Q: What sequence folds into this?
């Protein structure tokens, strides 16, 4: 059995409630807006700097997404490869998102050598 502190960390990677869930437009990680503001994106924080910045959270995430898949063991998951999240951290991810990062953020990512591949299902 896992020690309690590990169980608590596993729970922390999940959205803390059904209301206010948002998906990161870069990696599709699902958290509440409050979680993104408090902790940033577990995968994209080094580029998107959402932690403590509610304006950035609402620019770089969307409430328009469909379905959730939990990523637990990326090395063994064909779903992770299919969803293009095999390099992401454990957590809950949207199956489909609607929305795109603003062009200013896309240019900022390009300047940092990060290729933005939209996850928008309507593109």
A:
């Amino acid at each position: 059995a896992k020690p309690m502190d590990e169980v608590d960390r596993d729970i922390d990677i999940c959205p803390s409630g059904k209301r206010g869930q948002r998906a990161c437009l870069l990696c599709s990680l699902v958290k509440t807006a409050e979680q993104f503001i408090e902790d940033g994106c577990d995968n994209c924080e080094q580029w998107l700097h959402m932690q403590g910045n509610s304006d950035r959270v609402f620019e770089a995430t969307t409430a328009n997404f469909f379905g959730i898949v939990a990523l637990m063991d990326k090395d063994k998951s064909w779903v992770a490869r299919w969803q293009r999240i095999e390099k992401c951290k454990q957590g809950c991810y949207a199956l489909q998102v609607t929305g795109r990062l603003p062009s200013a953020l896309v240019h900022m990512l390009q300047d940092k050598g990060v290729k933005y591949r939209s996850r928008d299902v309507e593109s």
